[in-house]
Amino acid sequence: MQVTGAPTRTVESLRGASSFAGNLSIAFRVATALGAVMTKLQAQVRALQPSDLAVYCDHLLRLDRNSRHNRFGWAMDDDGIRAHCLRIAAQSVTVIAAEIDATLRAGLELWTDPRATHAEIVFAVEDGWRNYGLASRLIAHAIDEARKRNLEWLQIEADETSPIVLHLIEKFGGIRSSSEDGLNGTIMLTLTMPRQSTESVGVPC
Ligand SMILES: CC(C)(COP(=O)(O)OP(=O)(O)OC[C@H]1O[C@@H](n2cnc3c(N)ncnc32)[C@H](O)[C@@H]1OP(=O)(O)O)[C@@H](O)C(=O)NCCC(=O)NCCS
Q1: Domain containing 153 — which CATH number?
Q2: Residue to substitute in 45, 96, 167, 187 for testing ligand 1 pocket (most ligand atoms within 8 angstroms of CB)
Q3: For residue 107, which of 20, 97, 167, 174 is within the disulfide window of CB 3.0 to 4.6 Å?
Q4: Mutate to test the pocket of ligand 1, among 164, 165, 167, 184 (most ligand atoms within 8 A of CB)
Q5: What domain range is 170 assigned to?
């Protein structure tokens, strides 16, 4: 399996799709003259089926230029995104996604190394839906899925200018390292790393 969104995002195969499903109650802040008022919406987080690929592709196509750059490693155009989605289908990549009001607003791809020792995760949340814990939720599901597959570690590539991604790496116990490709975050799934289950991830409210 080959992720072509970035040169170093090269992981080779997909194992079977997982069947995570979960509900995430997210609080959205609505500014009013009286201050912040919290209203709650439901986000469903689940592993997508092949038949969901079109809506996942629609989500990627909604990402703006900067988000695409951060997500893929360069400003991927629409044709590139469509080609990327075809590769996901062809290679059965696991995609974990968050839907709000039946619209997919965030997604994470888990690209497993052919030796099944590790996987790289890449993810994005649509502008307007950020800072509500969606990425954290997706990463937590990816960690659970990776543990089910007995993977040893997960890798996240980080843009050095993205303090949020760096924060997420640290939040999940990741170890940051530098290479000629930039910053990497490695989340060890075995040995001494604390277990970060889906349930233990805090959701802003
Ligand atoms: C990175 C991205 C996925 C984060 O999604 P998100 O749903 O907003 O993330 P979350 O809400 O789960 O977590 C954001 C965290 O960053 C923190 N944060 C926000 N702004 C921050 C900043 N300027 N500096 C440091 N941390 C910051 C938040 O407090 C939160 O931490 P917490 O959960 O400990 O409170 C989203 O910004 C995005 O799609 N970016 C473009 C694509 C991308 O960069 N993908 C990652 C590389 S594959």
Answers
A1: 3.40.630.30
A2: 167
A3: 97
A4: 164
A5: 21-200
